[in-house]
Amino acid sequence: MLLSRYERMIAGRYLLPGKGERFIAVVAAFSLGAVMLGVWALVIVMSVMNGFRAELFDKIVGLNGHAMVQGYNGQLRDWRNIAAQAKATPGVTSAIPLIDQPLMSTVNGRVEFILLRGMQVDDLRKNKAIADNVIVGNLASITPGSNRVAIGSRLAESLGVQVGDQITIWNPAGQSTPFGTMPRMVAYTVGAIFEVGVYDYDKSYVLMPMEDAQTLLLLPSDTVMMIEVKTDNPDKVGDILRPLAAKVQGRAVINDWRQMNSELFEALAVEKVVMFVIGCIIILVAAFNIASSLIMLVRAKTRDIAILRTMGATRGSLVRIFMTVGTTIGVLGTAVGTLLGFATLAVRQQVLNVVGRITGQNLWDPSIRFLTELPSKPNPIEIAAIVVVALLLTFVATLYPAFKAAGTDPVQVLRYE
């Protein structure tokens, strides 16, 4: 929308109303602030929701893969053949045997439920979700027969142990005796403490070599519980593993990450949509404020508009002038809101900590939020969509006042002048 020189001059003067029109200026300022707050809130919310999903997905997949091939009755005897078939499936990048079993651990009278995971030593050390997040100790010390384990940081805090201390793991399915089944209790030394960043994992996981897990659970040496499978495209994991599912039918069942965490990721998707709609409503309210401020400006400038018409100003010129005034407010609010959103995201954790100290509340409880820190991942496409929506709503809000100004009849306004 190209403006002539005099149209730009008049639009500039109308953006800063005179002394007798301060109320209009106040309303326009509130309109700009509302657009800014709406865009600011949307940028923060959408970026945090994206970051939450991406961070949670990366950490869950880092420990559980894209899919699990689970044996019936908790045992997968022919696992080497199944792992070979999985690796030969197009799109599969790895197939790792695992033992997963919920058990109980005790230290000096403290009792915690744990999730025991047995892995081959090479797979344990190559797992970036674990190896890159060891905070104390060394995974190299965890070898078959060493009776050393790696545990999550939250579990270490709950049990009050450090590297070098011992924990006792109970297996209720122990050996049968004339007096009944006696639980199997084995003491292990803490060789490493890791912090993945997902509260539930850091609170429960105990990792040990596959051979030690088989011994503790009294499993045959050729038996595991499941095979973790990773693919080159997590979003198409169902299509990639369909041929493998047909091959293992009757021996095992395949569950992918969407099935194992369906409720969580669906809830995130719904919450993201709801927050976007709420943010758009905030911007819509701001657009109504822009429309109301322009209507008041048109009423205040009716005599000026009539004079401009008598001097040769066209209806199109008046439409462009008032649309420019409203759109400028929207553009400024959108720009400031976007910049403010990025600035807030850069210091989001510090802001959260400060607000928490002021209110005395833990605003980011890892036991509820899953992750230990507030994540963020701005999506350029979504940011562009937010900007477009804000500009579109503010543009539409200028149409009625602009055409109302253009429809002013100078004869009726100046008849008694």
Q: Could you explain the architecture of this structure?
A:
The protein is α+β, with helices and mostly antiparallel strands. Helices cover 57% and strands 20% of the residues. The protein contains 17 helices and 10 strands. It has helices at 5-15, 22-64, 79-87, 121-126, 128-131, 153-159, 199-204, 210-216, 237-247, 257-260, 262-300, 302-310, 315-346, 348-359, 366-369, 380-406, 410-414; strands at 67-71, 92-107, 110-119, 134-137, 148-152, 166-177, 180-194, 205-209, 226-231, 252-256. It has a 6-stranded mixed β-barrel with strand order 2-3-8-5-7-6. α2 packs across α13 (315-346), α11 runs antiparallel to α13 (315-346) and α13 packs antiparallel against α16. The longest helix is centred in the first third of the chain and has 43 residues, at 22-64.
Q: Would you summarize the structure shown here?
A:
The chain has 417 residues and is an alpha+beta fold.
Strand and helix layout:
Layout: H1 5-15, H2 22-64, E1 67-71, H3 79-87, E2 92-107, E3 110-119, H4 121-126, H5 128-131, E4 134-137, E5 148-152, H6 153-159, E6 166-177, E7 180-194, H7 199-204, E8 205-209, H8 210-216, E9 226-231, H9 237-247, E10 252-256, H10 257-260, H11 262-300, H12 302-310, H13 315-346, H14 348-359, H15 366-369, H16 380-406, H17 410-414
Parallel strand pairs: 3-8, 5-7
Antiparallel strand pairs: 1-9, 1-10, 2-3, 2-6, 2-9, 4-7, 5-8, 6-7
